[in-house]
Amino acid sequence: MKILKKINKEEFKEFLFSIDLTDKNIYDELNSSNTNGIFQFDGNVASLITKKVVPKNFNEMIAINSLARPGTSSFVDDYIAGRNEGKQKYPKAVSNLLEDTYNICIYQEQIMSIFNIVGGFSLEETNDIRGLMKKLGKADRSEEDLKKWEKAVKKFVKGAIKNGLTEQEAEFVAQDLLAMSSYSFNKCFSGYSIIDRMNPQKSLSIEETFKIKNNREYAKTINKLSLHNKYNRKGYGKAYSLDENNMPIYNKIVDIRYESRRVVFRILLENNKSIKVTKNHKFPVLLNSKNIIEKNIQNGLRVGDILFSFEGKEFIPQKIVSINRIGEENVYDVEMENPYHTISVNGILAKNSHATAYSYIAVITLFLSFYFKNYYLASVLQNEIESGSNLMEKIQLIKNQKINILSPDINISKETVITVNQNILRLGFSNIKKISLIAAKHIVENQPYKNLFDFIFKINGRIVRIDAVKALVSVGAFDFETENRKKLLRVVELYWKNKKSIKVREKLETIWKKSYSVISDLEGINTSNVELKDWEIEYYGVNIFTSVFSNKILKILQKMKEKSIIYYSFEEVRSVPKKVPVYIQNIRNYTDKNGNEMVFLQIEDVSGRSESIPIFASFWKFLKNQLEEKEIYLLQLYKNGESLMFGANRWVNKEARIKRMIKPLILGE
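The structure corresponding to this sequence follows.
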C-alpha cells in the first residue's frame, strides 16, 4: 500500500482491481525472473516451478501457487506433461474432474470431489477424509490414523470400481491423493464465529453453517432441512466483504472447510466486538486514512493496531485493546469469491484463505513491477530494510535490473527510500540505524541545508542527537561538503565538545570554523575502505556500497542461489551443509589438546557480517595449502545449534571429499 499511495499521487490512473488478467506483460514479467518481492512467487521453490511451467495465464499462476507446497510440488512434471502433451495420468472418471488443472489434482476441492463422485463418499465423509489425509501428511502419523486410511481406501476402491475403475487404478488414485493433500491453507476462524449477513436474523456461526450443509441429520434435528437443501443447491450464500473503495459489498461465500482443533486467540476491539482466530490468520490493518496493510498475530498484529468493525452500512476503524490465547477450538477456512478476499465475521473484517486470493495479490505486484518498476522496487527495498533478513540478496536482485542504489543525501533524501528517476533509488534517513522516524521527519521538514554546520544549527538536539549526526556523516549524507568522512567526524566531535550550552548562532559558527580549521590542519586523517565497511555494518547492518565482492561475482552467486547450489549468506545457513561465499579476513593458527595443528578463520559473507569458525586438525591437515588470507572462497558450512561450522555434520576422512568442501573464487572477477 505504500507504493500505491505514491503512484496514486503521481501517475497511477487505472483502477487497481480492474487489472486485465489477460495482459501479456504481467506473465512476461513473471517469466523474466524479475520476481523480487512478488507475493508468493519470490521463494526458491515457487521461482523454480515458475521457470519450469512458464505460466501464460491467471489459472496457471494459481496452479503454481498451489504446486509450490510440500504435498503437490512433486507433481509439477505431471502438470506440465498434462498441459503440453495432453497426458492422461488417471482414468476418465477422475480426469473429468481435473480438466482445469491438466489432469493433476491440486486443490482440496478436487480431492473431495473425487472421493464424493468417484468413490461414492458423502460430503460429510469427504470432509472427514480431508482431515485424515492432513494428519497422514505429517511425519508423526499414528497407527490409528493409518488404519483409518486403509479402511477409507477399501471403501474408495469399492465405490470407484462401481464407477468404472479397476482395483489397481482406484488404489493408484487414492495413494496420489494422499501425497497431494499433505498441505492446505490454514488461516482459520473459530467455528463459533458468526458470519455477518444482510439479515442479522439469518446470521449463523461458521460451524453451524458448515454442519447444516454437510450433515443432513444434523440439519433435520435443528429444523434446518430446507436450509440444508438450499445450501446444497446454491452454496453457502453471501457475507460482507470490503471492496476497492473500502466500502461494504455483499459477496459470495465460495466454500467453508473444516480444518481441525487448533489453538485460537481472542482479539478484542475498543467497541467490545471480538473474534477468535488462529495465530496466522491475517487482518486488514489501517495505518492511516489511506494505507492498509495485512498483519497477523504471528507476524506483528499488536494491541493498538486498527482493524475494521462492521457497523451496518460501513466499516469503522477500531483499535485492538487486547489479544489473548484462549485454547483449542474447532477452526474453519472460509473462501470468498474474487476479487474481494475479505469477510466480516463477528462484526470484524478479516481475510479469507485461498490460492486464488494469493495469486491475485501476485498479479497486483506483477502489474506494479512492470508498469511502475522504480516505485515498486523502492517499496520492496524499504520493506526489506524494515523487516527482512535477506537484504543483501534483495539489493543484488535490484541491481541486476540495472537500478542503482545511492546512499542518503541530506538535501535530497526523505524519511524512506525514494525514486530519483527510473534507474536510481536513494536510501532514506530512517533506513539508518540511530535515526528514528521522528528524527527523520524532523530532518526532512528543515531541508535544505547549506552545509553540516547549518544542519546542526537547524535541528533540535533533543530530537536529532549527536549519535544521529555522526551516523549521517558516516554513511555519506554530507559527502557534498567533503568525502573525507573521518575528518568530518573529528570536526563534529570537537565542535560538540566545545559548544557546551551556547545557543547564539554567531558564537556557534565561530566554534565550528575553529574546530574545522584545527582538524583540517591535522595530517594523516584519511577514510579507509575498512572504516567505510565498518560504518555500513554499524548503520545498515550490511555492506551495501563497500564490499570485497565485485558486482560480477555477486551476479554469479545470485544465479547459484536461485539454483539452490549455495547459501547466499550466514543468515541462510541451516543444519544441512552447503557452500557459502566468504572472504577470509585472517587465519589464526592453534594447537589442539592432542598437539595437532588447527586454525580459526575470520570470514565475512556478502552482507559484510563477520564470523570466526574453527577448522579442526582432521580437516586442516588436508587444507593448509588450500586457503589464503584476503581471498574469496566457497566454503562448505552448516549450523550446529546456533554455531556456524565448517565441513559436514558427520564424520568425513577422505581427502578428496574434504578438499571439495572448498572452492576458490578469483577476487575482482
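The two ends are 40 Å apart (CA to CA).
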